[in-house]
Design brief:
The structure holds 2 protein chains of 2 kinds. By secondary structure, chain A is an all-alpha fold. In chain A, helix 1 packs across helix 3, helix 2 packs across helix 3 and helix 4 packs parallel to helix 7. Chain A is globular and about 75 Å long. Chain A starts with 41 loop residues before the first helix and ends with a helix. The relative contact order of chain A is 0.13. Chain B is built from 2 helices and no strands. In chain B, helix 1 packs antiparallel against helix 2. Chain B starts with a helix and ends with a helix. Chains A and B meet through helix 2, helix 6 and helix 7 of A and helix 2 of B.
């Protein structure tokens, strides 16, 4: 399988936008070193690189911490502050310290995974493969259920199915809604939100910028196809740049929302009366 | 009806389905963001709290549109 699949079989003279026959082609890559390890894909390599990048960044920024922080130290401390205080303290409240390591890890992991989308030469958000957000969502689910069981014991499930302080006639109905939304919908929507946002972003970027590149290159090498195609390529390129800027925001925002929602779920487990 | 025509109609229906799935969340996010701006303008000191809650509201509302988007590919 080739790395650049989009341009193949794209008849520049016929179409106004190059699209692969099967969308999943944009999300699958050949193994980078098939002769050493055939099972080791580019996506796995990118996932394994995330902790290296995060730890390297923190090491670089905090190896000689200064009282008046430099740019990099400021950035890293800002990220910590955002997660520990902005999300942990303000959302979870009392007893939040225990959950800050998880929240910070998941925030940085998802953030770097998202930023891969707009990183030149990488251009592939690893969080757009459902396995990764799915795994993270299951992990968040385990954490908030275990936190709830520790806090309230098995009465947690009892309260879910048979909510106290509600008129008797409403109890079964509310119990079903509450149970389904807590146990099924929460992890599902957490995973799908991250996944679908990144899939949409990757699709838009690769279709727009890939088409733009193909069209402009075809026009430069073979001017007979007409100036119209080159101009169309430029139009796609400008639109792609706009989406690119938007995706910078999305990459940060989705990492933030994932962490925020994890914190909200943990909060609802350890402070059930709020 | 031959297969190619059926495929083309299916593609059109998928796009329409996604469009329908985007209507509700679009209106919803508009309401959430609009009210958040109003709250921030009336009470600037509560802006931080309002912003956090706004993102939560947007995240919950947006999920429906995204599920529609995923179904577009699954169907």
């Amino acid at each position: 399988m080739e790395q650049v699949i989009l341009a193949e079989g794209c008849d520049v003279a016929e179409v106004t936008m190059c699209a692969p026959a099967e969308v999943s082609e944009l999300f699958e890559f050949a193994a980078p070193w098939p002769e050493i390890a055939e099972w080791f894909t580019r996506t796995q390599m990118l996932i394994l690189l995330i902790p290296v990048i995060v730890i390297g960044l923190f090491w670089l920024a905090l190896r000689k911490p200064k009282l008046v922080p430099g740019k990099l130290q400021m950035m890293v401390e800002g990220a910590y502050d955002l997660v520990a205080r902005g999300i942990g303290r303000d959302v979870i409240g009392g007893g939040y310290e225990k959950y800050v390591p998880y929240l910070l890890s998941v925030f940085l992991f998802v953030l770097v995974g998202n930023v891969y989308e707009i990183m030149p030469f990488v251009n592939f958000p690893v969080t757009s493969r459902i396995a990764l957000p799915g795994f993270l969502a299951v992990f968040t689910w385990i954490i908030f259920v275990v936190a709830a069981i520790r806090k309230q014991g098995l009465a947690y499930f009892g309260h879910l199915i048979w909510p106290p302080g509600v008129p008797l006639a409403l109890k079964p109905l509310l119990g079903i809604i509450e149970f389904v939304s807590t146990v099924l919908v929460r992890p599902f929507s957490l995973a799908v939100r991250l996944f679908a946002n990144l899939v949409a972003g990757h699709l838009m970027l690769s279709l727009l910028l890939g088409t733009a590149g193909t069209f402009i290159w075809a026009w430069l090498t073979n001017p007979e196809i007409g100036f119209g195609k080159g101009a169309l390529g430029m139009a796609w390129f400008v639109m792609g740049l706009g989406i690119f800027a938007f995706e910078m925001l999305v990459a940060f925002l989705q990492a933030y929302i994932f962490t925020l929602l994890s914190a909200v779920y943990i909060q609802s487990s350890i402070h059930p009366d709020h | 009806m031959d297969l190619a025509a059926a495929e083309a109609i299916k593609g059109g229906l998928l796009v329409m389905g996604y469009g329908l799935a985007a209507v509700g969340p679009g209106i919803g996010i508009g309401i959430v963001a609009g009210n958040a701006i109003q709250a921030m303008a009336r009470q600037p000191e509560a802006a931080g709290m309002v912003r956090t809650t706004m993102f939560l509201g947007i995240a919950f509302t947006e999920a429906l549109a995204l599920i529609g988007f995923v179904l577009f590919f699954l169907a």
